[in-house]
Amino acid sequence: MPSLKDLKIRINSVKSTQKITSAMKMVAAAKLRRAQEGAEAARPYAQRMEGMVAAIGASIGDPTGAPKMLAGTGSDNTHLLVACTADRGLCGGFNGTIVREVRRVARKLKNDGKTVKILCVGKKARDLLRRDFKADIVDTFEGIGRRGVEYEQAQSVADKITEMFEAGEFDICTVIFNRFQSAMTQIVTNQQIIPFQAPETDGDTEKASGPAAIYLYEPEEQEILADLLPRNMAVQLFQALLESSASEHGARMTAMDSATRNAGEMIDNLTLTYNRTRQAFITKELIEIISGAEAV
Amino acid sequence: MADTIQFDLVSPTKLVASQAVDMVVVPGGEGDLGVLPGHSLLIGTVRPGVIDIHEGGKVTNSIFVAGGFVEVNPETCTVLVEEATPVADIDKAAASQRLQDAQKALADAADAKAKAAAESELKVAEAMISAAP
Questions:
Q1: What ipTM, to 2 d.p.?
Q2: Phi, psi values for residue B43, rounded to 5°
Q3: Residue A38 near chain B (CB below 8 Å)
């Protein structure tokens, strides 16, 4: 049976933990709102950019002359996986689900005899993947989204990917990130960014009606593509990072909310035990006094 | 043919403008493009410059853009840009500072890539200064 003092100490320690978790929840909630606005504001740009590339891709028709970033290198031997996680933990299953998906995909590719390379965005991806895939991790980007995701940060990741692609270090690049749906739900998404893949669930009737639309190009389409494709990749990455950042804050808010609630429950239980022990102690003392008086 | 064309100006951080207009003039990579309703399908680049929105025979809104892409079809004109600032909001001092920074970056550029980046930044800054009221 723990003594009164032990109980008191435990209650106090749980209370201070609760203070921390509830503060973290509040911070996450504030950041979530900003990140969510950012992610939602950037969606139209990313979608239209994707639509534009899809339109050009559809009108080119002959893939042999098209840039490799659009048409692919012609083989699929080396895969680059970009794992988007957070730098910090304490956000529920946020990092875990991404890492699990990366592991699953990497194992599957390896079983098929492909080479896998992993680019980690966020410290947690590296920490968690290092054990199993130490040799495959190419690089790690940290500190993204600490003060909100900025386009330049996505650009720097995109530059690295472009550089590797041009050096022929991989054939297919897939980004694995959490798509933000609500503070409670994040959807793990695998998005292939190289070679470019038109979104399958394109509900836009306009585009569906005219896949072979003949566009005028100014300047030449090759020139536009040379400019547009790297840009599109950066934008898709930027979008992924924004979604990931919003998801992170959402996940952290939910996790901290339940942690705060659990701490509250624990405090109630401990307080009950504390009071019971206190009463038992008083009763025991009284019995001792009374029996002492009777013995006289 | 519709009387107006739907004009969307989108930057990575937000949908800057989305409205039905009579005509827009976009600074295309190879010369200014006047886009009227019923324009044929076109995809082009956008150089740093000013987009003028025409309504009722006069310019109702001017927005500075720092390069990007334009997609036109008969009903809509979508412009994707890296940054967009209404001309009235351009801070001339900030723009000259940017010009200086770009010039310095160009002078310090070590490789071809950094040089290209600095050159494009320089063009943006120059266009911004000339667009400032």
A1: 0.79
A2: -125, 130
A3: yes
List, in sequence order, every beta strand (DSSP E) within A186-274: 186-194, 216-218
**pLDDT above 90 for A45:** no
Cross-strand partners of A287: none
Q: What is the 3-state secondary structure (H, E, C) of B27-38?
A: EECCEEEEECCC
pTM metric for this prediction: 0.83
How many A×B Cβ pairs under 8 Å? Answer: 75
Q: Give backbone dihedrals phi and psi of A212, rounded to 5 degrees, phi first.
A: -100, 25
> CATH number of A4-23+255-291: 1.10.287.80, 3.40.1180.10, 1.10.760.10, 1.10.630.10?
1.10.287.80
Distance between CA atoms of A57 and B129, rounded to whole angstroms? 36
In order, the DSSP letters of B64-123 are EEEEEEEEE-SSEEEEEES-EEEGGG--HHHHHHHHHHHHHHHHH--SHHHHHHHHHHHH
- Residue ranges of B 81-100 with Cβ closer than 8 A to chain A: 82
Q: Hey, what CATH topology would domain A34-253 get? A: Pyruvate Kinase; Chain: A, domain 1 (3.40.1380)
User: Does B43 contact chain A (CB < 8 Å)?
Assistant: yes
How do residues A249-285 score in pLDDT, each as one tens digit?
A: 999 999 999 999 999 999 999 999 999 999 999 999 9
